[in-house]
Amino acid sequence: MRALALAALLLLSACGAREPYRQEAYAFGTRIEVTVDGAAEADARRAVGAVLADLDALHKRLHAWQPGSEIVAINDAFARGEPAPVSADLADLIARSRAIEAASDGLFSPAIGRLVRLWGFHADNYAPVTPGAAELAALVGAKPRLSDVSVQGGRIASSKPEVALDLGGVAKGWALERAYARLKAAGVRSALVNIGGNVIALGQKADGSPWTVGIRHPRRNEAMASVELADGEAIGTSGDYQRYFEAGGTRHCHLVDPRDGNTGCALQAATVLASGAGAGLKSDAVSKPLYFAGPKQAAAYARRMGVRDILLVDGAGEAWLSPSFARRIHWLVKPAVVHTLEQP
Amino acid sequence: MRLIRPGDVAVFTLAALTCGLVVWACWTQSPARTLSIRQGGALWREVSLLHNARYHVAGPLGDTVVRVEDGRARIESDPSPRQYCVGQGWLEHAGQSAICLPNATSITLEGARAYDSLSF
Amino acid sequence: MTASASERLTLVARPLDRQVASLSALAIVLALVDAALPTPLPGVKPGLANIVTLLALYRLGFAAAVWVSLLRVLGAALLMGSMLTPGFFLSLAGALSSLMLLAPASRLSRRLFGPVSLSLIAAYGHIGGQLLLARLWLIPSDGILYFVPAFALAALITGTVNGLLAARLLRRWPSSKH
C-alpha cells in the first residue's frame, strides 16, 4: 500500500505531456535548434530537414570570406570597380538592410566587411590583432556604406571600392524569416527556431501556452530573464561575450562601430524583440545599432526602426528596459539596478 | 490507552515540515539530473549527473572531453580554436548548455526549465 | 584456562531472553516480508520490523529494543545471504542511528508522546543513518540529494502507519510483569 502510494507519487512527478520534436544541427557557422510541437514526428523531421538544407545553402552563398560564396564574388567585383550579378532574394535582403542602415544614422552598416576583416574577425580563429592606425583611418574615412551600393536589373554595383558586404549582422535574422515561412508552408503550426541565439516563434505550443525564450545573462552561464513570444515574434541579442579576443588587457568585440572602426565593448548586451512583418531581420539587425547607441539614444533609434521592446545591459551590469518590455519580461536573475528607458 | 497523543501530533507536524523542506531544497533548487551530449546535432548519449565520469566525444576536429563531477558538468577540453565552451566552466542548473564550435559538440543539462530556447 | 572434558556447558534462558528471542524471530520474519515487497526505489521499505522494536521498547525496555533491533539486522542478513554486503551495512547504520535517537526519545513523557512519535523518530533516524553512510561511502556525490525527499516522504508515511499499528498491538498486549 505505502510502497504503491509512493510509486504513484514518483511517477506523477516524472511524467508530463508528450515531448515536442527537437532537432539540433550545425549550419550557418553556428548551432541551429528547431523545436516542433503538435506534429507527427515523421512530418516534423521532414519539415525541419528541409529548413536545415535551405540554411546550409544560404550559408554557403552569404559567407563573408569563403571562396565561392556569392558575397565574396560581389566584394571582389567591387574591389575591381566592376558590377556583379546578384540574386533576387539577396538584392531584397540588401535593400532591407539599407533601410535599417539609414534609420540608424550609420550606427549599423553591412558594408564594412573590410573593417571587420582588418580586426581579424574573418577567420575561424580570432588572433589578437591591432590594425595599423593609418589603414584603419583610411577605411573609416572612406565611409563605406550600403548607400553607395545600387542594384539594377539583377546586377549590383558600388560607387566605392572600399565597400565590402558582410551580412553577419542580418543573415541570421533573415534566415529566421525563411525558416518560419518554410515551416509554415510545410503545415507546421507550432515551432520555435533558434539560429545562433536568434529565435523566432511560430504559433503557440500544442497545449496552447506561448513559446518562452530565455535571455542569456551576459556574465553568467544562464538565462537572466525569460519572455513569451507571440506568433511571428523574434528576439535577438548582441553581446560582448559572443565573439571577441583580448589584446593588451582590452576586450575587442566582433561588433565594429562603423563610425570610428572601434571594437571597444561598450555594453554587455543589447536585446531586441521584434513583431510584425520582417520581425526576424529586425530582431537581428536592430540590436547592433542599439548596442552602439547606448542607453541614452537607444529608445529613439528603436522607434525609428519600428521596434518597441528592447533591453540593454550596460558596462556596469545595470539593465535598461523600454516600458513595454518591462511589462512582459520575467526576471530569473534580476540585475541589481533596473532602469526604465524614457519614451522618446 | 489512546492511539494518538498530543505530542504525536506535534512530532508528526515537525516531520511533515522537515519533509516539505527537504522536497523544496532537493527538488526545486537544482533539478538537473541528466546531461545530454550532442554531436553534429544528433544525440550522442544522455548520461546521469550522479556518476562522476569523463566522456570523449569524437567530432570533425577531434575529441571534445566532457566531464561530470558532483552533479555538475563542463567541457574540459575541445579542439575548436575559440575555446568559448571550455571557458564557460561548470554548468549546474537545468537548461544551461555549452556549445563547442566548430567541432559541433554541445552539452545541455536536462530538467524542468523556465524557457523553451535561449537567446544569446 | 583449561576446561576438563567432563565439565558441561549450560545456557540458562531467562524469561526475558525468551521474549527477546521470540520478538527477534518475529522481527526477522517481518524484515524478510519487507525485502520481498516490491519497492519503487531501492531502500524504500515499509519497515514493518520496526513495529517489533517498538513493542520491545515499550514492554521490555530499551536494552531489549537494542537486542531485538540488532538481532533482526544480523538474522535477516544471514537468511538473505547479504551479510557484509553494502545492503547489510546500510541496514546496520539505519538501525544504529535509529536506536541512538530512540534512547533519549524513550524518556519523553509517555502521557504526551505515544508510539506514533517514537515510530516517526525511529523512521527518520533510520533514513538519516542510511543516507549518511551512502553519501560518505557508497555514492560519494551530492547526486544522492535528489533521492532524499523520496526517503523523507516514505519515512513520514511508514513512520506514522507503523506507529499506529504498534499502538494498537500494545493495547492488546497489556504490560505484564516479568
Q: Can you count the helices of chain C?
A: 6
Low-confidence stretches of chain C: none
CATH class assignment of chain C: Mainly Alpha
What's the CATH C level of the largest domain in chain A? Alpha Beta
Largest two-chain interface: A-B, 39 and 28 residues
Q: Report the mean per-residue pLDDT of chain C as an integer.
A: 88
* Second rung of CATH, namely the architecture of the largest domain in chain A: Roll
InterPro entries (chain B): NusG_2_sf (IPR038690)
Pfam family, one (chain B): NusG_II
Protein name (chain B): NusG domain II-containing protein
Organism (chain B): Crenobacter caeni
Entry summary:
The complex is a heterotrimer of chains A (344), B (120) and C (178). By secondary structure, chain A is of the alpha+beta class. Chain A has helices at residues 2-14, 41-62, 70-80, 88-103, 113-118, 133-142, 171-185, 279-285, 287-304, 323-328; strands spanning 21-27, 30-36, 84-85, 149-152, 155-158, 191-195, 198-202, 211-216, 223-229, 234-239, 244-247, 250-253, 269-274, 309-313, 319-321, 329-331, 338-340.
Task: Tell me what you see in this structure.
The complex is a heterotrimer of chains A (about 350), B (about 120) and C (about 180). Chain A has about 350 residues and is α+β, with helices and mostly antiparallel strands. Chain A has helices at about 1-15, 40-60, 70-80, 90-105, 115-120, 135-140, 170-185, 280-285, 285-305, 325-330; strands spanning about 20-25, 30-35, 85, 150, 155-160, 190-195, 200, 210-215, 225-230, 235-240, 245, 250-255, 270-275, 310-315, 320, 330, 340. Chain A folds into two domains: about 20-55 and about 185-340, ApbE-like domains (T-fold, Roll); about 60-160, T-fold, CATH 1.10.3980.10. Chain A contains ten helices and 17 strands. By secondary structure, chain B is an alpha+beta fold. Chain B has two domains: about 1-30; about 35-110, mini-chromosome maintenance (MCM) complex, domain 2 (Sandwich). Chain B has two helices and eight strands. In chain B, a hairpin with a 4-residue loop joins strand 6 and strand 7. Chain C has about 180 residues and is an all-alpha fold. Chain C is built from six helices and no strands. Chain C starts with 14 loop residues before the first helix and ends in a 6-residue tail after the last helix. In chain C, about 40% of the residues are buried. The interface of A and B includes residues 199, 221, 223 and 242 of A. Strand 8 of chain A pairs parallel with strand 8 (about 115-120) of chain B, so a sheet runs across the interface.
